[in-house]
């Protein structure tokens, strides 16, 4: 498609109706970036909330963030607020953060611990299982069992917590979880400890944050990351340029060594990629790291002395997981880093990053916080600048969609999944 096929006027026009958005979806050209209204239109943003974030499984937290009964986190998704709390049976529950009396917000803090959930307005009191325990001045006919907190679908996938706000959640989560769980089992994330939690405001539409993550075409802009991370994600042998050939040869050698370690550990050896062929889209791959091959650090050295779970070998590479629509994960021998993106407005979003370590790892003895977080804090900040520039560029009347490169297949996978789900085609 030539640059003249879609004019600047068309790409920057505001989508003002469902029909306009349907037309944008219908004329989306595979292999090209999206038209500007997908990133700049308030109407598209609202449909994103309604069709993507309210109807799909979205990753919201690591279970290690709520390790004890009564521990909770709150999550904001558009107009929704959701409480995730560990109950007295140590199971994770999810509820709408709304009192059943007159609708007051129940919990304001992002995280904390409670014995019971008490409404700040009229003191209606709920157990951590959501049941109404106390409501003063009610008639004899009042039945507390009819006024439990409204539940939200929640799933714990090997220590990763997903919610779905829809009445009927997509039913292929179980099939995907069955494929992914064996890869995650050695890390024992349910018993991990949170070392650091970061929230990074992004001056860009949530999709731009996700698209940026889905490719390494720009990874030369991440000098801290590529000291250990091979910037070859989604590259095939035929994509390798002369400049990348020495790096690729090192990557192949490291991959052969990792394959032997994976076989000894007894983990699955086949990678999977179903990004746009099912509702719960995902890809999972186990990649070697450069240098020592142990962690995200200069030269691939370890950043924590204690290995996660039942991992036996420090040089265990990087298990990389992508989940549609809003998350990605890196699992190393000595720590894990989990990421989630949530929309906050048409042109803004928030990136949440959590670093997880062994539950017995002691800060200052087994790991140093700066060393643990240096690579991804730097990378996140560099990506934030790239996303900001892209949001500004997509808002420019001169923007027209451009073609993806040969190594941006996973960007296409994300965008294709998004367009299908937005249009009800998947």
From TrEMBL:
<dbReference type="GO" id="GO:0051213">
    <property type="term" value="F:dioxygenase activity"/>
</dbReference>
<keyword id="KW-0411">Iron-sulfur</keyword>
<dbReference type="Pfam" id="PF00355">
    <property type="entry name" value="Rieske"/>
</dbReference>
<dbReference type="InterPro" id="IPR001663">
    <property type="entry name" value="Rng_hydr_dOase-A"/>
</dbReference>
<keyword id="KW-0408">Iron</keyword>
<dbReference type="InterPro" id="IPR015879">
    <property type="entry name" value="Ring_hydroxy_dOase_asu_C_dom"/>
</dbReference>
<keyword id="KW-0223">Dioxygenase</keyword>
<dbReference type="InterPro" id="IPR036922">
    <property type="entry name" value="Rieske_2Fe-2S_sf"/>
</dbReference>
<dbReference type="InterPro" id="IPR017941">
    <property type="entry name" value="Rieske_2Fe-2S"/>
</dbReference>
<keyword id="KW-0560">Oxidoreductase</keyword>
<keyword id="KW-0520">NAD</keyword>
<keyword id="KW-0479">Metal-binding</keyword>
<dbReference type="Pfam" id="PF00848">
    <property type="entry name" value="Ring_hydroxyl_A"/>
</dbReference>
<dbReference type="InterPro" id="IPR015881">
    <property type="entry name" value="ARHD_Rieske_2Fe_2S"/>
</dbReference>
<keyword id="KW-0001">2Fe-2S</keyword>
<protein>
    <submittedName>
        <fullName>Aromatic ring-hydroxylating dioxygenase subunit alpha</fullName>
        <ecNumber>1.14.13.-</ecNumber>
    </submittedName>
</protein>
<feature type="domain" description="Rieske">
    <location>
        <begin position="57"/>
        <end position="163"/>
    </location>
</feature>
């Amino acid at each position: 498609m030539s640059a003249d096929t879609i004019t600047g006027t068309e790409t920057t026009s505001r989508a003002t109706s469902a029909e306009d958005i349907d037309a944008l979806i219908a004329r989306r050209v595979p292999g090209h970036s999206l038209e500007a209204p997908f990133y700049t239109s308030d109407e598209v943003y609202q449909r994103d909330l309604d069709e993507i974030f309210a109807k799909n499984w979205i990753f919201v937290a690591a279970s290690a963030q709520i390790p004890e009964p009564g521990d909770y986190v709150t999550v904001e998704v558009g107009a929704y607020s959701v409480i995730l709390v560990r109950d007295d049976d140590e199971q994770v529950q999810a509820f709408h953060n709304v009192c059943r009396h007159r609708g007051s917000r129940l919990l304001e803090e992002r995280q904390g611990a409670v014995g019971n959930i008490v409404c700040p307005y009229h003191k209606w009191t709920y157990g951590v299982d959501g049941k109404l325990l106390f409501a003063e001045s009610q008639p004899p006919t009042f039945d507390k069992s009819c006024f439990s907190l409204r539940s939200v679908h929640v799933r714990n996938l090997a220590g990763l917590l997903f919610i779905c706000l829809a009445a009927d959640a997509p039913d292929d989560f179980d099939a995907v979880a069955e494929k992914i769980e064996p890869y995650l089992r050695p890390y024992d994330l349910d018993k991990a400890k949170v070392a650091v939690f970061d929230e990074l405001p992004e001056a860009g539409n949530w999709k731009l944050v996700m698209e940026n993550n889905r490719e390494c075409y720009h990874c030369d802009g991440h000098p801290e990351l590529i000291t250990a991370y091979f910037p070859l994600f989604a590259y095939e042998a035929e994509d390798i340029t002369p400049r990348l050939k020495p790096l690729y040869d090192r990557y192949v050698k490291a991959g052969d060594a990792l394959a032997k370690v994976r076989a000894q550990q007894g983990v699955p050896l086949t990678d999977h990629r179903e990004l746009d062929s099912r509702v719960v889209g995902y890809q999972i791959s186990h990649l070697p790291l450069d240098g020592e091959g142990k962690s995200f650090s200069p030269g691939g050295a370890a950043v924590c002395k204690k290995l996660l779970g039942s991992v036996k070998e420090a040089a265990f590479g990087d298990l990389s997981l992508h989940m549609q629509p809003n998350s990605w994960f890196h699992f190393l021998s000595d720590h894990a880093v989990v990421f989630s993106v949530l929309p906050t407005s048409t042109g803004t979003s928030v990136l949440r990053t959590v670093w997880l370590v062994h539950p017995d790892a002691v800060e200052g003895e087994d790991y140093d916080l700066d060393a643990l977080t240096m690579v991804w804090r730097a990378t996140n900040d560099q990506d934030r600048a790239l996303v900001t520039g892209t949001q500004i560029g997509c808002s420019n009347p001169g923007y027209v969609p451009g073609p993806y490169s040969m190594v941006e297949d996973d960007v296409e996978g994300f965008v294709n999944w998004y367009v299908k789900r937005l249009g009800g085609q998947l």
